[in-house]
Structures are given as structure tokens and as C-alpha cells.
Amino acid sequence: MTFNSSNQAFELEQSIAQWREFVLRRAAIMEEDADELESHLRDQIDALLDCGLHTDEAFLIATKRIGSLEDMSKEYAEVHAGRLWRNIVWGSDKPSWSTDFYLALLLACCAAVLFHLPKLFGVTPETHEWVYARNFTLFCLPVLGSYYVVKHQLGLRGWYWLIGGALGIATVINAMPWQAESATQSLSLIHLPLLLWFLVGVLYTGNWWQTDGRRMDFIRYSGEYAIYFVLLALGGGVLTALTIGMFSFIGINIEWFAQQWLVPSGAMGAVIIVGWLVEAKQGAVENMAPVLARIFTPLFTLLLLTFLIIMLVTGRSFDVERELLIGLDALLIVVLGLVLYAVSSRESAKAPSVFDRLQWLLIVSALLVDVLALVAIGGRIADMGFTANRTAALGENLILLVSLSGYAWLYWQFIRGRRAFVLLEQWQTRFISVYAIWAAIVVFIFPLVFGF
């Protein structure tokens, strides 16, 4: 294979290596399968170069001719069904699989140790509740970030980003002079996981958040992660209950051990193990988050429409209390999550479908609920003034208003055939940074403005 310049050769080889790495993420595809596919890819590139195409053009067309990775994964899965399920359960023969697993296991143990480390200095959850509340996510999410620094070979830049970010956040959170009953402290701790998750996302993408495609990958990853974590937590809860029950049969009470050691250690370790699990099983079976989004979209649409109709008929308005606002925002965030996963799983080239129209109806319903909530919050602030909780609710609902409005407009334009679906994808991937910025404002700025 000949090229016009060494720079072109380097870029092509790098692209082929990245393509091969992505192919090998599919549990149905083994190393020898990737060798065969790469050989076909190179033959296609050679033929296209001989026709006078540029290197980048040849690579793009050749990868299209090879076929989509999803189709390849399904095709190999049909031929090697037994091997696929062995890979899902026991892992493949790839050296990277065992390396990744043992790395994740080691880091899971490190996260558990970090949680219990303060106990050596007499700091326990019972005696220093707020210390653990402030640092709970700091014990595990930066460790998950370190998994991707190693896995994606981000080098010193990755470690600087991770260590600098985690230490900076930890220092600020623990150095603030919080009051005994502090609304801003509660708000900061609620938003801190979102800020740390964005830090993990920058490391997960492997390209420092520079492309819409990798941001979309992180959205898909987040959905799968949430589902796997819930399933693992449910399994861990059943295992813990059975363990306590079995020992109680022989007259030994280990409930204290489960509460103080087993459950916290398992929760910390699960954060890293789930991250490995989502990566390891990527493409092996149908992604769960988009499937659940399709199931729950009509149900949430019915819920919001019924809620709006009842409010209109009865003439009742929101009773804006803190608990209600938290619950309402949680509902709208779940709806936003359904939209995110539905958009991330949809093929851009497909024509508008009935589900797209249902998705638009869900977005409009959520938008109307958000507008009503904003009116109620604005009235409350006009009557009683600004507080940390009311300001946070106002800001979050304004962000949801902008986000949902963009979705509603772009979805409507797409359904009418006036805009491409890719604009929706760009809207959601580029708006993620807004959520992270708002989380940082609540964590760092609110305590200063509202006096800790």
C-alpha cells in the first residue's frame, strides 16, 4: 500500500487502529474476526486509492462498504451464538478483557478502602455524618475516572485533569464554613454527583469532549450505566438480606457488619464494576436504556397529560413547597432522560415515525408542566423573596425550559420534514455542558451568595 506522504500514512494507520479497537468492543467479534475484517478493509482502501481517491475518502467509503458494526455484531452472533454467550458470562479470550476486569476489580477495592479510610482517624458515618455526606461521591467517582484514564491511555494530561479536578472539588466542599442547618450544603451535595459525572464523561470520551459523536456515546453510556447499577444494587440488596438471614438462623447477628462494612464497600465497588460492565458488554445484546425509553414514553406522556387536564378542570395550582419542587424537577429530569436515550438510539437517516410524534407530545407536555411550575415559583419569590432553594428551583426549571423548548422546536421541524434529525442530536450533546455549568454554580457559588 502506497501513500502520498508519511503524514497521510500515519493518519490512515491511526484511523484503522481506532476502527479495529471499536470493532473489538463487540463481544460477538473475536481477535481473528477483527483480523479478517481489517484485511477486507485494507483491500477496499487499496482499490479506492488506485481509483484516485484521497486517503481519508478511501477510508470513509471502505468502512461504509464493510458494513455497520451493529450489523456485523448481529451477523457474527448468529454464526457463533454459543461463543457470544460464553463471552457475556465468562469473558472472551482477548487479553484486554481480563486486563480491564482486574483493573476494575482493583479500583473497586480502592474505592471501598477510601470510604473506610477516615475510620482510622475516628471519623465514622455515625459520628461525622456530614463528612461522609460531603465526600460520598468523591470516594468513588474519581476512581471510576481513573479507570478511563488507564483504559483510554490518556497519559499525564488525563491524570492532571482527574487529580486536579477531584482535589479542587474536594478541597472547596470540605473547606466551606457550612452552618448547622444549611440549605446550600444540601443543594451542593445534590448537585455534586452531576459535576463529578461530567468529569468522568470528559475522561470517558477519550477526546476531551471535542466531538458530538463521543458526547452521544457518553449519553448512551450514562443510560446503560444507570440501569446496570440499579440491577446490581437490587441483586446486592437481596444477597445482603439472605446473608443476614442465614447467619441469624444459627444465632449470629451480623447486621452491624452489613450496615457498617458490607453495604458501603459494595456500593463503592459497584460504581467501578458497573463502569467496566457497560463497556465490556457494549454491543453484545440490545441496549436496555433505549428499549425502556420506548416502553415508558407513552406512560409518562399519559401521566403528564392527565396531570395537566386535571389541573385545568379543577382550577388547582401548584403548592410550591420544597418537597414538591424536588419531586416535580425529578419527574421532569426523568422525562428529559427518556428523550435523551430515545434520541441517542434513533438512526438519523430514518423518516419520522409514530414514535417521533409521541416523543414530541411528551416533550410538549413536560414543557407545559415546567411553565406552570415556573409561574408558581415566580409567584412564590415575588411574595416571599429569594432563598437558596427557590433560586435553585428557578434556575433548574429555566434550564429545563430552554432544553425542552429546543427539543420541541427541532422535533417539530424534523417531523414536518424541514430539518434533519442530526440537529436534534447536536442540540442535546452540546447542551450537556450547560447542566454541568449549572451544577458547578450550585456547588460553588450558591454557598457564597446565601451565606453557607
UniProtKB/TrEMBL annotation:
Say if the entry is tagged with keyword Membrane. Answer: yes
Could you name the domain of life of the organism this protein comes from? Bacteria
Keyword Transmembrane helix appears in the UniProt entry: yes
InterPro entries in the record: Perm_prefix_1
Alphabetic keyword roster:
Membrane, Transmembrane, Transmembrane helix
Entry coiled-coil feature ranges: none
Where exactly are the transmembrane stretches of this chain?
101-118, 130-150, 159-180, 186-204, 225-249, 261-279, 291-312, 324-344, 360-382, 394-412, 432-450
Q: What is this protein called?
A: DUF4153 domain-containing protein
Species, as recorded: Pseudidiomarina maritima
Lineage of the species this protein comes from = Bacteria, Pseudomonadati, Pseudomonadota, Gammaproteobacteria, Alteromonadales
